[in-house]
Amino acid sequence: MSQFQHVTIPKGDLIQVRDGKLQVGNHPIIGKLRGDGIGLDIFPAAEAVVDAAVDKAYGGKRKIAWCPVYCGLEGLNRYGEVLPQESIDAITHLKVAIKGPFTTPIGEETHVCLHCAHQQYQGGACEKCGKQDGVAKRFRSINVGLRQKMDLYACVRPVRYFEGVPAPNRYAQQVDFILFRENTEDVYAGHDFASGATRWPPRSSAT
Question: Which domains can be identified in the chain, with CATH numbers?
Fold first, then answer.
């Protein structure tokens, strides 16, 4: 197994890709990024649900080996940055990872608390929740950063009806389609320009 500074690869089956297809063993190693804020609370619950579903589906013959990977608050506490290169390398090594929600700064403040998402104009303790270890300098979206660094250009979302599940629409049983959402271009590309500009890149004063 590859060695990382903070990421410890657990015992299990490393997912491989052969001839364009995933090769998954009975104990696949899957990265988990808990996120920050509410993610720290909801990811453990989601993990328990997934583990129970796998156990129910395979009668105990298969089990996920979860591998913690650190971004956001956990990345800040371990590496001093919210999107460490080691985390990108670890996800690439593992092939598959599941993430919780990450805080995305909005507005004009220079710092954001990754515990409660409060934004402020100085570092140190959070002015809202009072915690000392979660205030980071303003950064671009971690979600977008992951997509761009790993070329995750498409968000693929299957939508289908499951028999026996209540649904508000009249013909729910006919719902079976896949949504493809572009993830790295357009507004996600990060080509910002001044308010009022009508083209990109803006014309220089010499032209």
Answer: 16-189 (3.40.718.10)
